[in-house]
Amino acid sequence: MRIELTLNGQRVCADMPADATLYELLRAQGMKSVKCGCETTNCGLCTVHLNGRPVLSCSQLAARCAGAEVVTLEGLQDEAQLLAQCLADEGAEQCGFCSPGLVMNVLAMARELRSPTPEQVDRYLAGNLCRCTGYMSQRRAIAKYLKMREEGAR
Fold first, then answer.
1. Which of 11, 51, 138, 150 is most deeply buried (CB count within 10 A of its CB)?
2. What is the pTM of this model?
3. CB 144 within 8 A of CB 152
């Protein structure tokens, strides 16, 4: 099945099986930041932005994404730099396996909410499993990122 979509600002066309997931299409296109940890929508490692909203690419049929705009972490490198630095500064990147999905969710949250409350941050993190950090360092890093982002916007 031929699927056309916009990936990180570039038009792509891929021949995929009818039952292929968006995750499979993205990996076939060389997107290494998109990880698959569970294939059951429980870990958040495969999070991408689909038409501006965070989605789990392992649960989206690629065929249903035809004509859509898909953005992976590879397409948000500039935007993700400050958050990556905050994560490193706060010791929130131990193994780093969960980081791409976490970053994609935090960037979506930062776009959607001007000054998210701790509860809203927790809601955005709810789908991201991390076996290393216990989430406290991630919360500190996100708070630091949001503060720096807000100060930079002034």
1. 138
2. 0.91
3. no
Per-residue pLDDT of the chain (154 residues; tens, 9 = 90+): 999 999 999 999 999 999 999 999 999 999 999 998 888 888 999 999 999 999 999 999 999 999 999 999 999 999 999 999 999 999 988 888 889 999 999 999 999 998 999 999 999 888 888 888 778 999 999 999 999 998 885 4
C-beta of residue 6 within 8 angstroms of C-beta of residue 12: yes
- Given a contact cutoff of 8 angstroms between Cβ atoms, the answer to whether 44 and 56 are in contact is yes
**What domain range includes position 149?**
77-153
Q: In whole angstroms, give the CA distance from residue 111 to residue 75.
A: 15
Q: Which of 74, 102, 137 is the last residue of a domain?
A: 74
Distance from C-alpha of 100 to C-alpha of 16, rounded to nearest angstrom:
24
> For residues 106 and 47, is the Cβ–Cβ distance under 8 A?
no
**36: helix, coil or strand?**
coil
Instruction: Name 50's Cβ contacts closer than 8 Å, sequence gap at least 6.
Output: 22, 57, 60, 65, 68, 69, 70
Sequence-distant (6+) residues with CB within 8 A of 21 are 57, 58, 59, 60, 61, 62
How many independent structural domains does the chain possess? 2
